[in-house]
């Protein structure tokens, strides 16, 4: 951190914050942001809708997979907080001059955890995640080699997202946020069924864009802090107008995936209509963020849109099941 960031941190910590270590570790793991974990419901509904046989071995496999997913992501965000504190970007983005951000969400900056504690937590969560994903592979009814390789790559890349080689600092953040969501649908589905399904691919692509479409609003808000530490995102690299167009393109891509799925038969003909409520909310999100200039409200809207999308995906699968 620079001297100015040190002074900013001291100003922020002028009033000591007290909370339990357990609570601080929960905050470090960002367990309140559960949007990736909703993949479980999409996968379960997709298995019911697209397969004729359902093995009881699927349930313990899915439990292990989701528990591993939680641990891997807890490790990722803990490493991210550790790096963001060390380079000063979190002090800039969550400091007293950013009143819309809750400082307790960053335990290192708030002073409720030390960097050493965060680092130990990150490595412990990573080890637990590796063990649980290994268990999911071993106890599942199927283990396609491409799925195993995909999970290994995802695990390794997750640890390098903001730590080690810091992929998110070198222009890979946006693709990772989407790709992680794709993996968290496709991998457990393949472990459960031994194959892949076109409709499931459509759902995975839509699911992965959800977290990305609140991540890009965060990046828009964090431009100055990211630039100060050399963290390369689309928002920190291009002009405001180009960034607005980029986010609009992502929003349109989400709609286009459903539309192409319906037109080609990869998804039911009515699928694009079923996803229309999420599409309309996505348009409102962009308008709020880039026309009205309320980026943080638009970011919060992104969580609601993603959760609505998950609900609509589950309902679409159940309708496919009901229609036979």
TrEMBL record:
The chain crosses the membrane at residues 33-52, 121-139, 145-163, 175-192, 198-217, 305-323. Keywords: Membrane, Menaquinone biosynthesis, Transferase, Transmembrane, Transmembrane helix. PANTHER family: 1,4-DIHYDROXY-2-NAPHTHOATE OCTAPRENYLTRANSFERASE, UBIA PRENYLTRANSFERASE DOMAIN-CONTAINING PROTEIN 1. It comes from Amycolatopsis albispora. GO terms for cellular component: membrane. GO terms for biological process: menaquinone biosynthetic process; vitamin K biosynthetic process. This is 1,4-dihydroxy-2-naphthoate prenyltransferase. The lineage of its organism: Bacteria, Bacillati, Actinomycetota, Actinomycetes, Pseudonocardiales. Pathway: Quinol/quinone metabolism; menaquinone biosynthesis. GO terms for molecular function: prenyltransferase activity. It is found in: Membrane. It is a multi-pass membrane protein. InterPro entries: UbiA_prenyltransferase, UbiA_sf, UBIAD1.
């Amino acid at each position: 951190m620079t001297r100015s960031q040190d002074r900013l941190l001291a100003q922020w910590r002028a009033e000591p914050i007290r909370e339990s270590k357990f609570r601080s570790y929960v905050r470090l793991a960002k367990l309140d942001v559960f949007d990736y974990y909703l993949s479980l419901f999409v996968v379960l509904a997709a298995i019911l809708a697209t397969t004729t046989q359902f093995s009881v071995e699927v349930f313990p496999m899915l439990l292990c997979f989701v528990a591993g997913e939680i641990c891997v992501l807890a490790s990722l965000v803990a490493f991210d907080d550790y790096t963001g504190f060390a380079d000063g970007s979190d002090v800039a983005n969550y400091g007293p001059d950013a009143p819309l951000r809750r400082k307790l969400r960053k335990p290192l900056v708030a002073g409720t955890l030390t960097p050493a504690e965060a680092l130990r937590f990150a490595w412990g969560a990573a080890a637990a995640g590796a063990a649980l994903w290994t268990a999911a592979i071993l106890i599942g009814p199927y283990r396609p080699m491409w799925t195993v390789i995909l999970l290994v790559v995802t695990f390794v890349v997750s640890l390098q997202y903001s730590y080690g080689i810091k992929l998110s600092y070198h222009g890979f953040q946006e693709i990772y946020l989407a790709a992680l969501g794709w993996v968290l649908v496709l991998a457990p589905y393949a472990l459960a069924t031994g194959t892949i399904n076109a409709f499931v691919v459509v759902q995975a692509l839509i699911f992965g864009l959800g977290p990305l479409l609140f991540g890009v609003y965060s990046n828009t808000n964090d431009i100055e802090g990211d630039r100060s530490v050399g963290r390369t995102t689309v928002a920190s690299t291009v002009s405001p107008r180009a960034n607005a167009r980029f986010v609009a393109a992502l929003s349109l891509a989400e709609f286009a995936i459903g539309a192409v799925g319906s037109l080609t038969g990869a998804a039911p003909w009515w699928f694009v209509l079923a996803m229309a409520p999420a599409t309309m909310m996505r348009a409102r999100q962009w308008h709020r963020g880039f026309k009205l200039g309320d980026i943080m409200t638009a970011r919060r809207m992104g969580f609601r849109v993603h959760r609505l999308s998950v609900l609509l995906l589950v309902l679409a699968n159940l309708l496919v099941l009901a229609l036979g």
